[in-house]
Amino acid sequence: MLQFLPAPLKGVLAFLMLSVNVLFWFVLLIAVALPKLLLPIARVRTVMDRLLSLIGEGWISGNGVWMRMTQETKWEVEGVDALESHGWYLVVSNHQSWADIFVLQRVLNRRIPLLKFFLKRELLWVPVMGLAWWALDFPFLKRHGSDVLALHPEKRGQDVQTTRQACRRFARTPTSVMNFPEGTRYSADKHQQQASPYRNLLRPKVGGIALSVRALGERFESLIDVTIVYPSGAPTFWEFLSGRVPRTIVKVRSLPIPKELMQGDYDLDQELRAKFRDWVQAFWAEKDRTIDVLKQI
């Protein structure tokens, strides 16, 4: 509808529509979340959780409206038809741009439960979005780094316990937990600094995936592996808003999570750590080969 406009004007309009969409759904989220907070009754909270998920899905659909109005992107998506909207999933993806989050939400919305990210506790104080993440039950974590654990070994394992407490509410309603194993957006400089063995990816951080698996255990039905490729190059967020992404390729596949990885102490069991590492590196290497193929299409 607005694709004929100059890119800078499309970017401004897209940002304005994005902002209006955020504020509209934010008001609805808070209106539902406050009664949930004030009425600590399990049955009431279950109903509220479902309603909040519907609001979150509506929020994402609203983003889809302005994206269709301002973008001429050709979408090539494979593997989503077999997904189920009822269940618990661990979702992983490569990460190149802030646009990745919008791509993931567009492709997976209403095909699996609402995506939820593990967030640093400090993000709770981000204006508007912090309250929105809280209302949608995104888990806020305070993780201890290796330097802290070296000085205070008694804190070892608290990350897992905190995560389990944050995820306890997920037992009430199907949930998808999102993780970017690379931990940061890909760039050629980061790839070189890491001496990454992959052609198109940074080294995956196994600990984040292990933390999610240990927190929810057998609740996860599978791991959903998403591969995103921008044949013209990863866009900046402004390029994305301006409709300057001619083509986006998304490939989705479902992988079983090995049962043996759900048992034991990841921090203390070296054999378990090695199994996690081997599992993650195996599907990460396959993802790297997949990106090579998709780039040639």
Descriptive terms for the model:
six-stranded mixed sheet, Glycerol-3-phosphate (1)-acyltransferase, alpha/beta, 297 residues
Estimate nothing, just give the exact number of structural domains.
Answer: 1
Give me the CATH fold name.
Glycerol-3-phosphate (1)-acyltransferase
Which ranges are low-confidence, i.e. pLDDT below 50, for 5 or more consecutive residues?
none
| Beta-strand share of residues | 5-15%
Strands of the widest sheet, in order across it, are 1-8-7-2-6-3
Spatial gap, N to C terminus: 28 Å
**Percent helix among the residues?**
40-55%
Q: Could you say which overall geometry the principal axes of the C-alpha atoms support?
A: globular
Description of the structure:
The structure is a single chain. With 297 residues, this protein is of the alpha/beta class. The chain has one domain (72-296): Glycerol-3-phosphate (1)-acyltransferase, CATH 3.40.1130. The protein has helices at 7-38, 42-70, 99-108, 129-135, 146-151, 158-167, 188-194, 206-216, 237-241, 270-296, and strands at residues 74-78, 89-93, 115-117, 119-120, 140-141, 176-179, 222-229, 247-255. The strands form 2 sheets. Strands 1-8-7-2-6-3 form a 6-stranded mixed sheet, sandwiched between helices. Strand 4 (119-120), helix 4 (129-135) and strand 5 form a beta-alpha-beta unit. Helix 1 (7-38) runs antiparallel to helix 2 (42-70). The chain is globular, with a radius of gyration of 20 Å. 32% of the residues are buried. The mean pLDDT is 87.
